[in-house]
Amino acid sequence: MAGMQLSGAVAVASSNLRSPGVTSTSSCTLRWSSSQMLGPLDRHWNKQRSFLVVRNNLSLFSQVQKEVAPLSDQYSNDWLLRRGSVPTEDLTARLASKDDTDAKPDGYTLQHDFLQDSKLARANLEENNRRTTNPFNIIFVSAEVAPYSKTGGLGDVCGSLPVALASRGHRMMVISPRYWSGPGDTRYAGAFDTQVRIKIGCFNGEHEVAFFHEYRAGVDWVFVDHHSYHRPGTPYGDTRGSFGDNQFRFTLLCHASCEAPLMLPLGGYTYGEKCLFIANDWHAGLVPIILASKYRKHGVYSGSRCILAIHNLAHQGVEPATTFNSLGLPSNWYGALEWVFPTWARTHALDKGEAVNHLKGAIVTADRIITVSQGYAWEITTQEGGYGLDGLLRSRKSVINGITNGVDVDEWDPATDKYIASQYTLEDLSGKAECKAALQKELGLAVRPDVPFIGFIGRLDYQKGPDIIQAALPELMTDDVQMVMLGSGESAIESWMSQAEFQHKDKFRGWVGFNVPLSHRITAGCDILVMPSRFEPCGLNQLYAMRYGTVPVVHSTGGLRDTVEDFNPFANGGQGLGTGWTFSPISKEAFMGALRTAIGTYRDHGDSWKGIMCRGMSQDFSWDRAALQYEQVFEWAMIDPPYA
Ligand SMILES: Nc1ncnc2c1ncn2[C@@H]1O[C@H](COP(=O)(O)OP(=O)(O)O[C@H]2O[C@H](CO)[C@@H](O)[C@H](O)[C@H]2O)[C@@H](O)[C@H]1O
Fold it and tell me: Per its UniProt entry, which superkingdom is the organism in (predicted)?
C-alpha cells in the first residue's frame, strides 16, 4: 500500500500472555515467551515517530497455526498424551477442518474441555473477523450518497462503504444535503425531520439549517436541509452549468456536519466529541479546518480526527480569495486555504492569481489522506497526476494510503439484479446470453449472439476519454461489431453520439443521459466494456463489468491498472491468466490495438474468453476487504495527535 510503511512482526517484552483466541483450561495454562507472541505487531513509522499497531484481524487458521505449533517445542506430544490431550498436529488439523467434532482419533484419549474451548475460540475468532474489536463513531461527509443522490462513483462509495463499516460494528453517520425537489420526490420519504435547527454564520448572515434522519442498514443517514439544496438538476448544477453558489452550499454542509455529532440524539444519544470524520472530496474539505480552527481551540473535538478521502483530485473547489471572509472561519486561518495560480494560468496582467482552494485546505489540515486505489495514491504525488497539489501531497506522503474501492454486491449482482432480462451466475452463464439478446432488442440492433457487443458507460468529459472512442469509431465500425455508449456531459460529445448513431444505424447506439437501469443492462448484456479514461482514481464500472462476466478493456492508469489484469494465454500452464486488457499510452492506436485483440479472442478463442469471464466473476470486490483496510487507517489516525 503506497505510503504505508510497515515492518514485519515485532518482538515485545515477554509476559504470561493468554491468546485472545485460544483459551486454555486451568489444567493447561499456556506461557508465551517473546518469540511466541501471538498476533503480529506492525511497526508503523510516521513522521519519525514509531508506534506499535496491533492487527486484530487474524484468520483463525493462521492464528491456530501460530498458537498451537510452538506448543510442540515446550509441550511434547508425550507430555500432551500424559495429560490425556492430543498431539498438536492433530489438533491443528482438527481446528482447520470444518468438522472438528468430538470424534476421537484412534489410540488417543481426548481431554474434552480443551477441544471445547478451542471450538469456542474459533467461533470467537470468526466473529472477530466479522466485527471490529475497536469500534469508532464515524461521520462520513459527502456531497452525494446513493441511492438518495448520485452523479457518479462518489455517490456509490458513500452509499455502500458506510454500510460495510456499520456491519463490522462501527457507529456510522453519513451526512449529506437533502436535495429535495418537491412533494413528488420520494427519495427522502424515509427520512424524518429531527426538529433540530441550527444557525450557521457564514456568507454575511445566519443561515438556518434543519436535519432529517433515516436509520437504514445499520447507518444513520442524516440530511442537511436548506432551501439552496431544493433545485432541479444534479447536486452540482443544471442544464445551464454549475450552480453559482456551490461554495456557499457546501460550506453550509461542512459547518452542519461538525455540529451534527454534538446536536443530534440519534437513537437516543449523540455521537459526541470522540469521532472520526471522513471528509469526501472538496465539498467536505472545510471539515478538518473547521474542527481545528473553531472547535479544537476551545477543547471540543480534541479526541476526534479527520481523514480526507480523495475520489477525484481534478475537482478542488477553487474560488476567489475574497470569498475567504465568507466561510465563517477565523481570519488567521487564511493560510490553510490560500492558493496562488501559476503565472501561466492567470487571466490578465494585474491578476495576482490569488484564490482559496478547499481541497488544498483539507490536504494541509487532515490527519490522514485516503485515495481510492494504490495506483492513484502514487499518481497524485507526481507532477502529471497532482493537478498542482503534488508538492503538498508529497509532503504528506507518510499519511497517504490507497485503498481500492469495493462494490455494493447487493446492488450489482447478476444473480439477483432486478434491472436485467435474466439473472445468471458463474455456474450457469446462460442468462448472460439472454441479457445480450434483450439489450440488442431494446436498442433496436440485430439480435445476434455471435457479434462482439461493446459498451461504454460514464461521464462524457476529458477524464473518461470519450474522444478516444470518437477518434476510433470510424475504424471500429468497419468491423462486424455492435457498440452502445451511455453518458452525458460535454455537449460536443453528446451531439457526436447522436450523429454517430445516425451514421451507423445498424451498429452503434448513443444514449445521452443518466440512466441507472440501462447501465445495469449494458453491464450485463455487452461482451466488452471499454474505459479509455485519461486518469481514473479507482473506477467502478470495470469492477461491475468483471462481476457480470463482461470483459474490460481499459487504459492502464490509476485504479484501472490496479484492478484489471492483462490476459496472458500462456500463463498457468497454458490455461491462461488475466481478467481483461489494459493499454498504454492513451491514444486511438493503443486503444484499437487492445480492442482488436479482445475482439479476436472473443471470436476465435471461446475457451480463453470463458476463462477471462470466469476469472473476472470470481474476483472479490466486496467492501469487506476494503473495510478492513479502512479500519487499519482509522487506528493509525487515532494513534497520532491531531495534525492541525
Ligand atoms: N450516464 C450514466 N447513467 C447511469 N449511470 C452512470 C452514468 N454515468 C456514470 N454512471 C455511473 O456512475 C458511476 C461512475 O463511477 P466511476 O467510479 O466510474 O466514476 P466517477 O468519475 O464518477 O467517480 C470518481 O470517484 C469514484 C469513487 O471513488 C472513483 O471510482 C472514480 O475513479 C472517480 O473518478 C458508476 O456507478 C456508473 O455506472
Answer: Eukaryota
Cell of 641: 495527535
Q: Is the CB of 257 under 6 A from ligand 1?
A: no
Q: pLDDT tens-digit profile of 25-53?
A: 222 222 222 322 223 323 333 322 222 22
Ligand 1 contacts CB of residue 147 (under 6 A): no
What is the pTM (predicted TM-score) of this model?
0.81
The alpha carbon of 155 and the centre of ligand 1 are apart by a number of angstroms equal to: 8
Q: 3-state SS of the chain: helix, strand, coil percent to 5?
A: 40, 20, 40
458 lines ligand 1 (CB under 6 A): yes
Q: How far is CA 217 from CA 165, 376, 424, 626, 631, in A?
A: 11, 30, 26, 18, 19
CA distance 602 to 527: 8
Calpha distance 434→449 (Å, rounded): 9
Whether a cis peptide bond, with omega within 30° of 0, leads into 585 is: yes
Tally of CB atoms within 10 A around 36: 19
Q: How far is CA 58 from CA 10, 43, 55, 66, 628, in A?
A: 16, 17, 7, 10, 11
Q: CA 639 to CA 554: how far, in whole Å?
A: 39
Between the alpha carbon of residue 488 and those of residues 284, 434, 455, 507, 514, the distances in Å are: 25, 27, 15, 20, 7
What SS3 state is found at 329? Answer: coil
Each residue's pLDDT tens digit, 444-476: 999 999 999 999 999 999 999 999 999 999 999
Query: ipTM value of the model?
Result: 0.99
Ligand 1 centre from 154 Cα, in Å? Answer: 7
Predicted local distance difference test score (pLDDT) of residue 239: 86
- Cβ partners under 8 Å of residue 520, min gap 6: 412, 417, 419, 420
Ligand 1, atom 30: closest residue by C-alpha:
539
170 touches ligand 1 (CB under 6 Å) = no
Ligand 1 touching residue 457 (CB < 6 A)? yes
3-state secondary structure 554-578: EECCHHHHHHCCECECCCCCCCCEC
